[in-house]
Structures are given as structure tokens and as C-alpha cells.
Amino acid sequence: MASIKNALLKAPSTFLIVRRFRGKINIQKPRKPHFERQLLIDLTKPYFGPPKYTLPDVVLCDKATTEHKKEIDNPFERILAKECLDWFNTSKMVVFLHLNSISMEDKTPIFAALRKNKMHLRTYGKKIVKMATTGTRYEAVNCLFNSHQNIIFGQPESADKMFKILKKAPQLVVMAGIIEDRLMSKNELVEFSKLPNIDMARSQLCGVLQSAASCLVGQLNQSQQTLVSHLEKHVEIKNSET
Fold first, then answer.
1. Tens digit of pLDDT for each residue in 159-186?
2. Crossing angle for the helix pair 75-90 and 126-133, nearest 10 degrees?
3. Residue 46 in 3-state DSSP?
4. Beta sheet of 172-179, edge-to-edge order
5. Contact, 111 vs 154, CB < 8 A?
6. What's the CA gap between 132 and 91, in Å, rounded?
7. Residue 189 · residue 159 · CB < 8 Å
8. In the chain, what is the straight-line distance between the N-terminal and C-terminal CA atoms, in Å?
């Protein structure tokens, strides 16, 4: 029998044996934890301030506790502001856009089409535009900026092409624009885009002036021609009597 026991494999005995706690746990009056556990409970105990309805109105006023943040001079922002001011000074047409949600896949063809027609789409923030236009003649456009806005820089003769391109992207909404140092609304920009170009306007002006000149010459020659016709008629009558 002893040889059979030695031949069989023995199960290893565990060092930790789990036993059920026989005593009943007192839920109403639990036993106090040991020192380390009580220390951890005290450290992790959340702290809640007094309710707001118990505080006076002076404490609840946020304006009294606001702190003005100190602005940091950023050289990169100054470079962007100088670039933005250069675009304002060199472009005779500046159009401000409101940008709705649009993906880059839809925005890239619009950017390329504007670039092809010698117009440039730029994005600047409110702070950059304020730095660029403060103290200049363009300072009135700061009220159009609440966050990052899109701006189109170009020439006035490209206004008609710009509206045709923007029809393909309804997410870009025209708010206002500057044409020849004059601030215009969207309706005024649409009317301006429908005007003919400078060459056609010059030809129409020349036609009007030429028609007025020819009408004046005709009116001046009419009395002379009438007088000549009367004299010829009088000569014919005299010749017929003789």
C-alpha cells in the first residue's frame, strides 16, 4: 500500500487557504479599518463646497473675479498681420466670406478655380485681422470677424467669375466686400458684377457722345439747308417768269 502511494503523484499543497468568514458582518456598525486604509480613505475623500443658494450674490458675480490675461507678443502673428495688410493694400477687390461646414475635398476645387482666375482665397483669424487693420482705412471690417474667416483677394473685373465659381460651393456665403476702397454689401456686389467691363463701357460712352455730336451737327445744318432750298426755289421761280 505504501508503495502504491509513493508511485502516485501528490497534489501540491497551497500556501494560502481561503476560508469562509463564519461570523456575521455588522452592516450598521462596521468595524473600523486599519490605519493605512483609514489614511487612504481620508486622502481620497471628495470635498464639496457650500451650495450656491447659500452664498451671497457678491460671491456669485463672475465679473468681480475675472482676470485679464496678459497678451504675449507673438512674432509669427505679426508676420501674418503684415501679410494680411499687404493683401488689403495690393488688391482692389476684397470679399469677405462666411464659412459653413465644408470638407477639404469640396473646398480644394474652389481654391484652384479662384487661383486660375487670378483670385486668392486666404483664411485669417480675428486677432490677425485686428492687428493688420487697426489704425488703417480698413479698420471698419473688424466687426465682420468673430473667428477664422475666409477672404478673397482679387481685381474688380473678376467679380462676375467669382460669383459663378461660388455657386458650386453654397457653404461659402458672401457677406460684404471692398471695391475700389468702397465697402459694399452682397447686393451691391451682385449689381457690380453685372456691369460691363471698362472697354465695353468706353465704347458705349463713345457711341453716346458720337450720336450727340452728330445730332448737334444735324440741327445746326438744318437751318442752312432750309435756307439754301428756299433760295434755289426762289431762283427757279424767277427764271420761269422771265
1. 888 999 998 888 888 988 998 888 888 8
2. 60
3. coil
4. 120-124, 149-154, 93-99, 172-179, 182-185
5. no
6. 15
7. yes
8. 183
